[in-house]
Model the fold of this input.
Amino acid sequence: MTQKNTFYITTTLPYVNAQPHIGFALEIVTADLLARYHQSLGEAVVFNTGTDEHGQKIYAQALESGKDPQHYVDEYAATFQDLKSLLNLSYTHFTRTTNTDHTKAAQEFWQRCEANGDIYKKNYQTLYCVGCELEKQLSELVDGKCPLHPTKELETREEENYFFRFSQYQDALLKLYSQQPDFVIPGEKQHEIASFVKGGLQDFSISRLKEKMPWGVPVPGDEDHVMYVWFDALVNYISALGWPHDITTFEQFWPGVQICGKDNLRQQSAMWQAMLLSANLPPSRHILVNGFISVDGQKMSKSLGNVISPTQMVERYGVDATRYLLMRLGPIGGDMDVSWEKFDTLYTAELANGVGNVCSRVAKLCEAYTDFWSEEELLASSQSKHAKEMQSTTLSRYDITSYMSEVWQSVTALDGFLSETKPWRLEATEKKKVLLDAVKHIVAITQLLGPIMPETARHATNHFSAKHITALKPLFPRLT
Ligand SMILES: [Zn+2]
Done:
């Protein structure tokens, strides 16, 4: 038996102190689209997501709500697991950083870095943003505050911590970026991280005093410290693959593709890569970076009352249409602006009046024929070469924006074909020939829609590959 090609993709693990938001929905649907595409190529796919469950912020919130931290994170993990059915996700792994396998992996990882001389203890004073769970350099602050959390006071911390020798990895990271110009996608984000690294790296703290903050993975060999939440959480990208106890699986699937929001650029494409190098493990395959989502030009926030949640979107548009609308925003690129009005307009134009309408038109025109497909035609239409090529020139390069516009162009092209050929005016023989072309075109469209809208694609494929094609109920009901 020949070895199957493998594909590994992972989202970041959302920090479990809030309900799943649209930014994470965008991230996980993007990963799902890519996982489904690679599955369709016959590859063995691991698709990992999960929850990041340690750290100061969770510990403080658990105490505040009078809950045991484990109980608190269990509840939140469940709300993130609900996304699987809400958004019809195909993930294979859900890693919780409080799992025993994960915490053991984090400890083994620590020991590898330590054995390599990259972990040391020192006394230090730092400014810390509890919102980000990150230390902040003075140069990063705006008006003395974290630009992402302007309402939170920065904490000054002084304690003895373990540090990771990030500064040792400047050359190795710059070499990684120059050898692999598409390591971070989009390219502008690779430039951004490369210039951050060029500017010089400072060692970062990777532990907390247990007496102040016990909610973390114990540091091996020092019971007074727990790991800094980032150090433990980043290891999930490999603990999900069974590292270190299942090296066979790990070696089959690593290096993997990681997707994240742009606020995670530094952690994913520099800190984590340095940690991997320190543990003598290969760097990731790619880091895909999403922009931020705003609502009518404003930051989405509870206090502004402009939050659009994935649950609300599914209630209004249905699962598949929600996935389509999210992917049409243009993930793995720049910032995105949304509003209900924009979503409604797009839904009506491209789904109700677009995909849905063209499918209904063709089905209606075919209905008069009792025997539409011959066996050979059925076989020939089941896979579209054109769709395959289109996927390989866009999706294999993680270019979802181009892919989505190709999909939309193919819908408008079919509309154009119908207007031009006017099959309803043709004689029976010629009419059937034109309709057959139209149906083949629909089969190609459904193949393209497969990774984006799996249920709609499956339904339409079945409908249009029946020997007798009948009228089709609207795929996308009009909005009310
Ligand atoms: Zn912050």
In short: Residues 348 and 479 are 8 Å apart (CA to CA). The pocket of zinc ion is lined by residues 129, 131-132, 146, 148-149 (CB under 6 Å). The first strand starts at residue 6 and ends at 10.
